[in-house]
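Now read these lines:
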Amino acid sequence: MYDLKTRLLALELVAQGRSLNSVSRVTGVSRSAIRAWHVRVEPLPRMARDCPPRPTEQASYSYLLGLYLGDGCVSPHPRGGHYLRIACADAWPGLIELCRAAIVAVRPGASVSVVQKQGCVMVSSYDRHWPCLFPQHGPGKKHDRPIELVRWQREIVDAHPWELIRGLIHSDGCRITNWTTRAVGGATKRYEYPRYFFTNESADILSLFTDTLDSLGVSWRKANARNISVAKTASVALMDTHVGPKH
C-alpha cells in the first residue's frame, strides 16, 4: 500500500508529462500502480488541487532548494500539514538568518521557528504545502532513493543557478584554505590557496551540483566518491564572487 502523499506526487509527475519509468524511479512506486491510479476516473483529493503555483521569489527558492537537498527534510504533522526542517550549524549564525529569510520569501504566510539542538539549530517551518514545493520528499534517506528535479524546479534552477550552488555549499559544503611549501632561492616558503568542497552521499545530488557548475563554467574534480573539489584559481574566484565562505 502507498500513502496518499506518495500517490499524489506520482499523479502530479505523470500530469507533468513524465514517463511511467521516470515517475517510478522518483517515487519508488511500481509502474503498474501508477498506471492504475492514472486511468481511474475520480477527482483528486483537495490537497492535490490546492498545491500553490511555483514560488514567485524564484532566487530564494533556488537557494532554499539547495539547503533542503543538503541538510533538510519534510515531515508530516500528526494533525495535518507538514514541517520543513533545515539543520544549520551554530558556528554560522549568518547562515541561520539566510535560511529563515529564504523560507519567509518562499512561503510568506508560513510559521518559522528556530529550535536549538546539540551543536546546531533546526530552522523549522509549518505549512501544508511543503510536499508540493519539495516533491523530492519521500520515505527514507535521500541517498537511498532517486532525486530528480521536476520541470518547474529545473526552470527555476536554470534561471538562478548560483543560488542553488550557494544553498548546496552552505548546507553540505565549505571553503577552506590549503597550504604547501616550496624551496625558492634556498629558502622554504609557504603558499596558501583556497578551495571549495561539496560532500553528499547521494549520487543524484552530486550530479545536480556538478551539472550546475558545468553550466556556470566552474571547473571541478572528484576528490572521492562523495566529495567534489573546486580548486582552480579562476573557478575559486567565481565561487568567491557568487557564494563565499559561510559566516
User: Anything to note?
Assistant: The chain is about 45% helix and 25% strand. The beta strands are 72-76, 82-89, 111-117, 120-127, 173-184, 187-199, 221-224, 227-230.
